[in-house]
Design goal:
heterotrimer; A mainly alpha; B alpha/beta; C mainly alpha; A: two-stranded antiparallel ribbon; 11 helices; 73% helix; 4% strand; B: alpha/beta; Rossmann fold
């Protein structure tokens, strides 16, 4: 009995770490751009497709495919960032919603147009199961958890100590003041966006070996998983997002075990609503950004 | 200035698209004698992964028929229309095919709720709606003598399949305790509904019941629960893209090779088996068709499909390919493209498909053989073909 | 391309009255010169016009961005379908019940949700759609789950001994046109009333509105409920027109469609929303010429809209309108 609960918590942490890497990019983008990015899952999909393309067409090894997936996503993010995201800095929320929905439609259906709509088979990665402390996991999942931790420590260090990280924090707090003191807001917005999209791409590539099926519409589900996490974590709050992702992963796992898998996708939004009833600004005050 | 220009361009572009809609209404029924065949399927968005195979299958069949001289000298042209997998878009697509493109026949949709919404539209217009991939029993409960005389279905319903799988698992394998892990759509839900209907006959029970959302990627929690539940087999009715994921995670939680999958979710395709050979060993599946099916026609289809598109066909590709051929045969036997005559020909048809003879019952439901197979040593082994009459509710 | 009754035609003088009358006339005679397919497209546009009007009251006049319209649309569709299938009640009863049920459910949902600010509110309303779909899928005893409710009867009216059934595209067109015209009139009356001005005050500056004595909280709640009523009514039409209701009715796709109609037409204007619903349904249908490029083109269209027409097409309509006025 206790073993089951602990095992399900471990399962929850495993899925939580995937959500965390995707969500942290989205929350950073929100912090700086003030836009809910409905296209965020599409960058996850692009990362996966980039890696799949590298493996399937050029027979490249998986580590190289990771790099290709992330770089391809980042390149597309440069284009989208320049033409779309920079322009929605300071625009009303509705404009951000429509623009990112437009981007999502374009990215998703372009991929379907180019590669065909049918699902592909991702063959790279380290899928052999290993046993750790009595729990069996695919090697790839351990990699995901480790990379997730590295990403978080790296981001914490970056936003605390690096110049661009400090600028990001400043922009997320007050755009006008930043402009006054000479911070190039559009430049910061662009870089934050590329970083966020790149992280989504990275998580796509990392999870592809365990998720196996690759198809153009796979990003939408991820977007919907991520949205409640970033609100719960306090928009723009990296640490809060990490904790919220873990809470959601564990809650989903327990619901799937004790209630039924069919209720799993409602867990995110149901938890979000309960949390908001209790704390209207999310679990972690949005003031403590980054 | 540039902003102003692009704004103008944007307006003009929108206006042009609008004008085109009005003017395209002027298309008349083609006089060159092509047979216009509409194909409604999800082609954009997340469900595009189902529509893509359908379109390829149908287009390949049309190409084959046309290179062989067409039907009675007429070429078939396939006109795709996007349903996005939602009823309202599906109905719009159907209306457009009927009123603008003036098609005579429609094949569609994959999703049952879209097909149900298309039925009255096709009925009002007197256009033949030939479904090739929806399994909701209601579609043909309401067709033929049930009401919609223009709806036909060349696809098995969930009921048949559920019975065949359960019977084999109980009688040949001696299973009595099952866990359910099916897709949360009308297909997955209905298949389990019918399974439950037959459980008492085999003195069996369901221990856990879970449905996963299409596109779900995380099954570890539910598979751990199944492992601890004492189930002897997992009943899974799902779509092909989930099978490799479930298989790999079965290996992770340590139930691969111990608790087999039974049901239908393309357990038999080479890519599913390759993804998780250990988990799929012993899987039992009832399928309308499978790539490894050993008939000359089926083998030729698979080879040709791979040569054409560079990937192996799935079930949706096959049923749409076969349905276009079936329709062509009906047109040929009617010796006319008159809709009423073709409909009559379809009702009376004896069509030799890649898996056996196809005929239609009085509810316009095809009597189709269902192939039962088991994965043995990493290869699907066919255990027989079953065909059953459907009990229509009185 | 397509005509509609415009409430703005009811004000002013000059060429606007003849033009408005001409539009109304065109709308009434549309079945004479339009085929079934364009009529179908207009019916869909008019069905979506109802929830869009509701969203416009919420977003355009009160300043609250909500994605919950699809949830109330679905609730209305199910309410109407269940009544029609189980009790065979006449259409007007189903229709009104759909609106009432949606409005009644909006009350307990609105009370906690409206306490939230901006982004949290948006996500909470999106949550209603997701949870609504889960309920529709899993409450099988009521909704038949994913099997959906099929064979919903055509709208029929029964008043005393007389009864008649609306059948065929043309009949449905007139039914929907009449309902859309009434709904538009209702929105017009709400907006022009003192309450409408208070709503605009809340949109412009909530704190200020509160300080001059407007009970902002009650206003927001009531507008949220009214918007749900409109969505529920639209859902009822949807159910009777498509004859099928399934959990797919609850999806964000519909919420965003309504949002695009309101923002594209011009939030805070009535004529803009009418224009928007015709334009966007027309556009998605027109793009069917190229199925594989359709959604990509639609995506680019959204981007063009956001960047070149941040206020939607309302300013263009406004210019056209004053052009008509000047010509006297």
């Amino acid at each position: 009995m206790l073993y089951t609960v602990i095992e399900q918590v471990v399962n929850g942490i495993v899925s939580g770490s995937v959500y965390a890497i995707v969500a942290v990019g989205m929350t950073m983008i929100f912090g700086v751009l003030r836009a809910i990015n409905f296209a965020h899952g599409e960058y996850y999909m692009l990362g996966t497709f980039g890696a799949w393309f590298a493996i399937d067409y050029f027979d490249l090894p998986y580590p190289v495919a990771i790099v290709i997936g992330v770089v391809a996503t980042a390149l597309i993010a440069v284009v989208v960032g320049n033409f779309v995201m920079q322009r929605i800095v300071g625009a009303p929320a509705e404009a951000g919603v429509l623009a990112t929905l437009g981007v999502a439609l374009i990215l998703q259906n372009t991929v379907i147009l180019v590669f065909g709509g049918s699902y592909k088979f991702f063959s790279g990665g380290y899928i052999e199961p290993v046993t750790l402390f009595g729990f069996t996991l695919a090697e790839q999942r351990i990699l995901i958890i480790i990379v997730g931790l590295i990403v978080f420590v790296g981001l914490e260090l970056m936003v605390t100590y690096s110049r661009i990280g400090k600028a990001m924090r400043a922009v997320s707090q007050n755009i006008e003041c930043c402009a006054v003191v000479g911070i190039d807001v559009r430049h910061i917005a662009l870089w934050t966006f590329i970083l966020g999209a790149g992280l989504a791409g990275l998580s796509g590539v990392l999870t592809a070996p365990v998720n196996v099926s690759v198809y153009g519409g796979m990003g939408e589900l991820i977007t919907f998983k991520t949205l409640p996490i970033i609100i719960m974590g306090g928009l723009g709050n990296v640490r809060g997002t990490f904790v919220a992702a873990m809470i959601l992963g564990i809650a989903e796992s327990l619901v799937a075990t004790y209630v039924g898998l069919q209720f799993r996708d409602t867990v995110g939004f149901a938890t979000l609503m309960l949390v908001l009833m209790w704390r209207p600004h999310g679990l972690f005050s949005a003031q403590a950004r980054f | 200035m540039t902003i102003e220009l692009s704004r103008r361009g944007f307006c003009i572009g929108t206006a042009l698209i609008g004008l085109q809609t009005i003017s395209s209404g002027a298309f008349a029924r083609s006089e060159d004698g092509t047979v216009k065949l509409g194909l409604v399927a999800p082609m954009s968005g997340p469900n595009a992964r189902y529509g893509a195979f359908s379109l390829r299958g149908a287009e390949m069949a049309a190409k084959e028929i046309n290179t062989a001289g067409g039907v009675g000298g007429r070429k078939i042209s396939v006109m795709p229309a996007d349903s996005q997998g939602t009823p309202v878009e599906g109905v719009s697509a159907t209306r457009r095919l009927i009123d603008q493109s003036q098609v005579d026949y429609i094949i569609g949709d994959v999703s049952s709720s879209v097909t149900l919404a298309m039925q009255p539209v096709a009925e009002d217009a007197g256009v033949l709606l030939l479904n090739a991939a929806s399994s909701n029993p209601m579609i043909t409960y309401k067709a033929g003598v049930g009401g919609f005389k223009w709806t036909y279905r060349n696809y098995p319903t969930d009921e048949n399949r559920a019975l065949i799988v359960l019977q084999y698992a109980a009688e040949k394998k001696g299973f009595t305790k099952y866990a359910v892990l099916s897709v949360d759509t009308d297909y997955g839900r209905a298949a389990i509904e019918f399974t439950k209907k037959y459980l008492p006959r085999f003195k069996s029970q369901i221990l856990t019941e879970d449905y996963y959302k299409e596109g779900e990627v995380d099954f570890r929690s539910v598979l751990s629960k199944i492992r601890d539940s004492g189930a002897q087999a997992i009943i899974m009715y799902g779509n092909a893209d989930s099978t490799p994921i479930v298989g790999r995670q079965m290996i992770e939680v340590g139930i691969a090779g111990k608790i087999p999958l039974i049901g239908n979710a393309e357990f038999n395709t080479a890519s599913s088996i390759k993804a998780a050979p250990k988990a799929l060993e012993g899987a039992i599946e009832a399928a309308a068709w499978l790539p490894a099916y050993d008939s000359p026609k089926s083998k030729a289809f698979v080879e040709k499909f791979i040569a054409e598109y560079g990937e192996a066909p799935n079930n949706h590709a096959y049923v749409h390919w076969e349905t276009v051929h079936l329709l062509a045969k009906a047109i040929e036997q009617a010796q006319s493209i008159d809709r009423e005559k073709v409909r009559a020909a379809l009702s009376a048809i004896h069509y030799e498909s890649a898996v056996g003879e196809v005929t239609f019952d009085d509810h316009n439901q095809a009597r189709l053989p269902m192939i039962l197979l088991e994965i043995e040593h990493g290869k699907p082994a066919i255990k027989g073909a079953y065909s059953a009459e459907i009990d229509y509710p009185k | 391309m397509t005509p509609a009754e415009s409430p703005v035609a009811k004000t002013g003088a000059d060429l606007r009255i003849p033009f408005g009358l001409a539009l109304a006339g065109l709308a009434c005679m549309a079945p004479l010169f339009l085929g079934n397919y364009p009529l179908h497209a207009i019916i869909i546009a008019l069905i979506f016009l109802l929830p869009a009007h509701g969203l416009n009251l919420l977003l355009g006049y009160t300043g609250l961005l909500s994605l919950a319209q699809a949830a109330f649309f679905g609730i209305g569709a199910y309410a109407s379908a269940l009544l029609a299938v189980h009790f065979g009640t006449p259409f007007y009863l189903n229709f009104l019940a759909a609106g009432l049920v949606a409005g009644a459910i909006a009350l307990p949902l609105g009370i906690p949700a409206l306490r939230l600010r901006s982004t949290s509110f948006v996500m909470c309303t999106l949550g209603f759609v997701i949870i609504g779909q889960a309920i529709a899928k899993n409450w099988i005893g009521l909704t038949r789950g994913d099997m959906g409710l099929a064979a919903i009867p055509k709208p029929y009216f029964a008043l005393g001994p007389a009864s008649f059934t609306v059948s065929g595209t043309v009949g449905f067109y007139y039914l929907v046109l009449a309902i859309a015209a009434l709904a538009t009139l209702a929105v017009y009356l709400i907006v022009r009333s003192p309450a409408g001005r208070n709503m605009i005050a809340i949109r412009e500056n909530e704190t200020l509105a509160e300080s001059v004595g407007i009970p902002t909280w009650h206003y927001k709640l009531i507008v949220f409920m009214i918007s749900a009523v409109f969505a529920g009514l639209g859902g009822s039409l949807y159910a009777h027109y498509l004859t099928v209701v399934s959990p797919l009715t609850f999806q964000m796709y519909y919420s965003t469609t309504m949002l695009i109609i309101v923002l594209g037409g011009g939030a805070g204007t009535i004529s803009g929303v009418i224009f928007g619903s015709l334009l966007f349904v027309g556009l998605t249908e027109a793009l069917r010429v190229a199925p594989e490029l359709r959604m990509i083109a639609y995506g680019f269209f959204l981007l063009g809209l956001v960047f070149w027409f941040p206020n939607g097409f309302a300013p263009l309509i406004g210019r056209f309108w004053s052009f008509l006025e000047r010509r006297k």
